[in-house]
Write a structure and sequence with these properties.
Methane Monooxygenase Hydroxylase, Chain G, domain 1; globular
């Protein structure tokens, strides 16, 4: 669907500007994620290199701009391009939610005593964190370049992550990890939930590259031979 948007509209159109704003939102939320993870997992304090709330305000501002540009474009051009406009509006909703979840991670860091250490689960948590980080970078590439093949590959590559998030959260609720403190277990559960939601919203954005509007957020259908 993204490829259709890029091919339909000129570089000076409202829709093209809305697309570029969406891409900027992806870049900003990526930086927000990296900073929130750093302060929770790599430091004993909660001092940020920049104000996450300011970046989130920028993301929210860009979301409003995309909505306005899409609305104004459709008001002029009519409903023939409605699907393209709805795709962009759907994407910026996901990106705005990613921004909110990065703020949730910062809140964990501000309330948890010291760096979040998770004992025996450290290796697997690092694997999940790396999965989200890699997913971010690859989603940005797929979206910017409207690369359908890369998007299909990306959606397949990280299917394993959702199940692993759920398994560990369930394990924490059952009290199976005796090495982690009560405070650590609560912080880890909230962190895993935030990571899972960021991962899910990124996948929604990736599906917009390969799916029509009504299937954004769902598994792509196999093309008939």
């Amino acid at each position: 669907m993204i490829k259709e948007i890029l091919s339909l509209f000129g570089s000076d159109s409202l829709m093209d500007r809305a697309f570029k704003r969406s891409y900027e939102m992806l870049e900003i939320t990526h930086e927000m994620f990296k900073e929130s993870k750093r302060v929770l997992r790599e430091t004993d304090g909660s001092d940020l290199d920049y104000d996450i709330n300011d970046r989130d305000s920028t993301v929210n501002k860009f979301q409003r701009e995309v909505r306005k540009d899409v609305f104004n474009h459709l008001a002029i051009s009519g409903t023939d391009e409605l699907a393209s406009g709805m795709v962009l509006i759907s994407i910026v909703i996901d990106l705005e939610r990613i921004g909110d979840f990065t703020k949730n991670i910062v809140e964990i860091a501000q309330n948890h005593p010291g760096r979040l250490v998770v004992g025996d689960f450290e290796e697997e948590l690092q694997k999940l964190e790396k999965g989200v980080e890699d997913n971010f970078g690859k989603t940005i590439y797929c979206f910017k370049n409207a690369d359908e093949k890369a998007a299909f590959d990306l959606l397949k590559e990280y299917r394993w992550m959702t199940r692993r998030f759920d398994d560990k959260i369930d394990s924490l609720m059952r009290g199976e990890d005796k090495e982690i403190s009560a405070a650590g277990a609560v912080a880890l559960a909230i962190y895993l939930r935030a990571l899972k939601r960021i991962h899910s919203h990124l996948r929604n954005v990736t599906t917009s590259v390969v799916n029509p509007f009504h299937r954004i957020g769902f598994k792509p259908k196999k093309k008939k031979k």
